[in-house]
Amino acid sequence: MLGFLPWMLFLFFSGHTMLSLKIAIVISLVASITLGFGDLKRGFILQWGTCIFFIVCLVLVDLLNSRWMAMEMDLVSNLALASIMWFTILIGKPFALQYARRGPPKEYWNDEKFIRGCRFITMVWACLMTFAVLVSVLKRTTWVHLPNWVYFDITISNIVVGLTFTTIFKRKKRLQRQR
User: Is residue 111 scored above 90 in pLDDT?
Assistant: First the structure.
């Protein structure tokens, strides 16, 4: 789950001011490089996408003071993360597979069930992040007017659902493999 840590840091530190957003971008970029250095060297798509996203944010928000980017950051960040996940599925390299290959022995790495399970985990995460994009779009419509904390709580709940699903799915598959 280290691949998601820069995104979590960004979520919690971005705050409601331009200064807090700029600080969150720097923290998230530094975290994505330092904590994900090994994954960057191994070519992990999620890690590279994360770094590229925060570099673009650094340029647009921190250096160019783009108000539009700052105001639309929840939508743009959710869209970026969902796009990275769907991209890994489309090219046949689901991000979960890259991370999952760290644990089991190499003889499992090309097992069709193992690959299918990782593809499924990635699809669930991609759907969750697509839902987050839809929530960000809904926030901008005139259909529903909810306080900002409601949208934040939905985002947190979305992440909790993803982490819970991934943990339960991995345990279930590990138990099946052991039998």
Answer: no
